[in-house]
Q: What sequence folds into this?
């Protein structure tokens, strides 16, 4: 497995047509890492969640499935499969909330020679039995020309 240091432009949108006032959008430019291995693409990075704190993300994408995992502030774990409702968990300050997500789109592209890639996850989210909206996570990443060895990745994490 080879890992590359990258700059990630991360855009998160939640669109709720039933309650447009609940729509949200955030965009962050962050240092991170992209890793290829076992037929999957992995993005790892840290971001600040407003009013909650720092969180570490791992996004795993493989064909028509993905996993979004967040540690730190507001931990979550959500598996995604195209067209299939999948259970997950979201750790709120007052306890664990069960989530369910149905992926509509899972895409990833990484050109290691140009050190450029994009990924997009689009899914319908239900949290604690309440419809949250359509979540759209977009990632654009550009990298350094040097690879980071697997040993160095393990030592950093």
A:
């Amino acid at each position: 497995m080879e890992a590359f240091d990258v700059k990630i432009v991360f855009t998160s949108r939640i669109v709720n047509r039933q309650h447009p006032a609940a729509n949200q959008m955030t965009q962050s430019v962050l240092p991170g890492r992209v890793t290829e291995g076992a037929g999957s693409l992995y993005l790892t990075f840290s971001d600040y969640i407003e009013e909650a704190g720092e969180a570490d993300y791992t996004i795993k994408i493989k064909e028509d499935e993905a996993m979004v995992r967040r540690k730190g502030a507001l931990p979550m774990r959500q598996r995604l499969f195209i067209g299939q409702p999948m259970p997950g968990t979201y750790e709120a300050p007052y306890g664990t909330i069960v989530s369910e997500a149905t992926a509509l789109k899972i895409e990833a592209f990484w050109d290691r020679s140009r050190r450029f890639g994009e990924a997009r996850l689009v899914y319908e989210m239900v949290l604690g039995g309440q419809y949250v909206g359509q979540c759209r996570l977009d990632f654009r990443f550009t990298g350094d020309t040097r690879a980071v060895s697997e040993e160095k990745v393990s030592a950093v994490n």
